[in-house]
Request: fold
Amino acid sequence: MEIARELQEISLDLSRGSCVTVGNFDGVHNGHRKLIGRVMAKAAALGVPSVVVTFCPHPLRVLVGPHTPPLITDYEKKLDLFEALGVDLTLMLRFTREMAAQEPEEFVRRVLVDALHTRELVIGYDFSLGKGRKGNFELLQRLGAQYGFATERLDPVIINDAVVSSTRIRDLIRAGDVWDVRPLMDRFYAIRGKVVRGMDRGGKLLGFPTANMEPRDELMPKPGVYATWVQIDGQVYQGVTNVGFNPTFDNARLSVETHILDFDRDIYDWEIRVSFVHRLRDERKFSGLDELMTQIRRDVDLARQILSAPDARL
Reply:
């Protein structure tokens, strides 16, 4: 997959046209996958490249500021997912206030027509672009008729009687309902980050060493203890992950600590990926080390049972 961050960087041959979708695609959930799949099918039928146009930073980060919700999927992972789906070109444009103030007609002419030579545009049911969100389906249809491309709008994807959306997924993760996220994304919710030194309590005090993550700018699940899959250097291990403040030790800052089952290697400074499968319990304060260690053993046993189930496979 080719990745371009400026129109001038595009080297893919688009002389015969392209099939395009545009959006933020936070989470690359099943609604997004349906859009991209439709683009790829149309591109294959026409014999032209498939193109995803997206934005960095997320427009809300620019328009609202730092108090916007964390991302479900960071930009690097988003690109990985696009590539895995078979997209030919991702155009990740830098979003600015100037772009937000741009009339939709200008974006269509400059990006979709002059740069991408769009023949087919596929958008989501709630898509709009440009100043005042005026670039809706009806306007895009009219512009398409003017410039020679067709516009198709897809209906929302419904799972468990509700629309699949980034907001719904974000709410589930924040509530700790990570098991319910998988049907909406076709994968478990995951975060990744570098392993850093913690307080050295897990191994020395408790006999359960932990990998302490330095997560990226991604959404954190509700504090608690989770059964997880841990990916390290291409290998997958079972794990028990605590997200929270370690109330037994009165930590002041949020931490993500994972006890990796049947694993004994030094992985400081390594990047790991933790996929959240099922929430085991709330984080709570214990009377002492013995009670905490007993609970951790129970957590490990329960995690093994959950992760051994066929529908819990990564």
The chain has two domains: 2-156, 178-312. The CA atoms of residues 18 and 118 lie 5 Å apart. The first strand starts at residue 2 and ends at 4. The chain has nine helices and 14 strands.
